[in-house]
Amino acid sequence: MTTSGSLDLEGIDFAFEDAPALHDILADLRARKPYAVVPFAGVRAVLLLTHELVSAAFKDEETFPASAIYPLTTGPVLGHTLQCMAGREHRVNRAIASPPFRRSRAKDYIEPVLAPLAHELIDEFAARGEAELVAEFTSRYPVLVISRLLGLPVEDQDQVRRWAHDLFYFPFEPDAAMAASREFAEYILPVMRRRKAEPGDDLISKLVTESAEGEYLTEEQVLAFLRLLFPAAADTTMLALANTLVALLTHPEQLELVLSDPGEQVPWAVWEGLRWEPPVGLLPRACPEATSWQGIEIPAQTPMIFSINAALRDPAVYPDPHRFDITRRETAMLAFGQGPHTCAGTWLAIAELQTALGVLLERLPGLRLRDGAGEEARIRSQVGVALRGPSTLPVRWTT
Ligand code: HEM
Questions:
Q1: What span, in angstroms and rounded, lies between the C-alpha atoms of 388 and 281?
Q2: Buried-most residue among 51, 269, 290, 362 (CB within 10 A)?
Q3: Which residues make beta-bridge pairs with 296?
Q4: What is the pLDDT along the chain (399 residues), one digit of tens a residue?
């Protein structure tokens, strides 16, 4: 197999364009071969389409190092984040930054934040009988979770949300994103210094006081990690929650199944939502050196696209893969990547999604899409093609 010769697909540039029938396009390409050569920002990219290839590529940090792409794509606005790091630096930073998000911290640290916050947001609109859930819930909840886990004052949270929003739109509005990046640094650096002097039980205190392999994080490393949390933790979870809601609201029999036993079914609805429409759908990477990998000849500097969304609909792993079916009982872990850069917040994300979905269904009985809102609530590309979710979610319920 070789990447020279004609492209496998023309008419869509995978760096820029939304394709309404994306899943069909990916399935057609995968039926031909496990990868495809497609246009990406005007050059040829290798799109990996099967569960086997995407999983192998994530684990092969030597051939497709995260550090070959993130300094270019997010480095200017987020700084030198975990995603830009490799080797010992990455190990030390992860060893300090990821334990606060683990399941073992749930009872005392994470759970007390999640359900009360979901109720607090829903209190604002529950009596109304209708809402636009992206604006009023899904885009607010995950960033407020982060803001509270960081121990930031509640009165600052609207400002924090505005910075998070501007960082998200970096590819389209780079000036606003750079300004948000600077202003967030000016706001958070004094907080970091105060917490170092007088640590509490919050995430920032842990980042500035803990060490691994005899090393502490530098101010710049802590700052970059905190900035990374907005796109990596908040925006992903926002899209995941909205995608699962779209799935349930467009599959009434599945919603009924969830409502018949929420304690048992909500966790599986969350996993199936992540499989059916993972928020990080088409993850860009790069192949810096020329290589022959899994039988594919890849020239140096080739952009790679790890199609998580095609992998999670690979019929070799998931029978009848396009069907949204919460009785599959599959944990679609690939939605969180794999290998050394796998998601550091997987458990937090799952806890947030399960809590939010459970509370929404409990508080909004008879939840349904507003009549005729199907097209508005369509899952589409968000800020380039990597991320996918609905832009709006107009719903009604019974009051
Ligand atoms: C449903 C929600 C989420 C999804 C689908 C998701 C997905 C991912 C994926 C696919 C990666 C790997 C990226 C790569 O290899 O280039 C990643 C990395 C990461 N995620 Fe998540 N994520 C979610 C929520 C969160 C949350 C809540 C946090 C909070 C801590 C978080 C923190 C991170 C961090 C810090 C990384 C970088 C890890 C590293 O480079 O070592 N994510 N995430």
A1: 6
A2: 269
A3: 293
A4: 456 668 998 888 888 777 888 999 999 999 999 999 999 988 999 999 999 999 999 999 999 999 999 999 899 999 999 999 999 999 999 999 998 888 887 777 788 899 999 999 999 999 999 999 999 999 999 999 999 999 999 899 889 989 998 988 888 889 999 999 999 999 999 999 999 999 998 999 999 999 999 999 999 999 999 999 998 999 999 999 999 999 999 999 999 999 999 999 999 999 999 999 999 999 999 999 999 999 999 999 999 999 999 999 999 999 999 999 999 999 999 999 999 999 999 999 999 999 999 999 999 999 999 999 988 999 998 877 889 999 999 999 999
Residue ranges lining ligand 1, Cβ < 6 Å? 66, 82-83, 94, 101, 228-229, 232-233, 236-237, 240, 278-280, 283, 335-337, 341, 343-345, 348-349
Instruction: Using the atom order of ligand 1, give the atom closest to the CA of residue 82.
Output: 40
Please tell me the residue having the least CA distance from ligand 1 atom 29: 345
- Domains within the chain, CATH numbers bracketed: 22-396 (1.10.630.10)
397 C-alpha to center of ligand 1: Å?
Answer: 33
| 64 CA from centroid of ligand 1 (Å) | 17
Nearest atom, ligand 1, residue 90 CA: 41
Question: What is the Cα 33 distance to its own chain's centre?
Answer: 27
β-bridge pairing 302-307 and 43-48: parallel
272: helix, strand or coil: helix
Among 335, 337, 311, smallest CA distance to 52 is for: 311
Query: What is the 342 CA–ligand 1 centroid distance (Å)?
Result: 7
- Strand 35-40 to strand 215-216: parallel, antiparallel, or no bridges (unpaired)? unpaired
Label the pairing between strands 130-132 and 394-396. Answer: antiparallel
Distance 344 CA to ligand 1 centre (A): 6
